[in-house]
Input
Amino acid sequence: MIKNRDIVVVGLAALDSRIGSNVINLAHEFAKNNRVLYVNYPIDRFTMWRDKNDSVVQNRVQRMKSDEPNLVKLEDNFWTFYPATVLESISQLPANWLFDILNKINNKRLAREVNKAIKRLVFTDIIVFNDTDMFRSFYLKENIGAKTYVYYTRDNMIAVDFWKTQGIRIEAALMAKSDLVVANSTYLAELAQQFNPNSFYVGQGCDVSIFDKKLIATPPIDMEPI
Output
């Protein structure tokens, strides 16, 4: 079990999104024995234009313009961070050389913001836990001086057309350069092992707390005969 470490969590799920993700649950688990900084992904330029009427996007833009704090403590050992930057929309660029140039720029913008947060929190000996954020966090280890980089593959993203243009190439390269790759299925672990021998199946996990019979004072009437 990892204890007394500083963990920076990045990924495809933001705490202000409308859907949940198991990486959020993982981050809370990490925080039981470690300090955790959960980095919400920055919005990109195309999304900011396309979804300008979306309340989540509007809140992000407003947060960047206002004095509202972008580093928020949610509970003991757990902080969430909203990077005050906008990234270029590059995922569908067909030219590898252009994508790589702009992706380095995007990575530097994100890392510049993350470095502000880890400096304020005095994070050291950092572990980066990356939940499938293959583009924006490709250079995060070196850009923030982290000690360990863990890539978490929980969906076969490159099977989806949106990710194929650059994802096939970039995810393989990111897995290869990661210190450790963990997967929530044996299939994804086997795929990852093609690029990194330090790839392991870790399971999915399940929150069974709602099934604790101690929480049920009296059984529902229609279930009494069961």
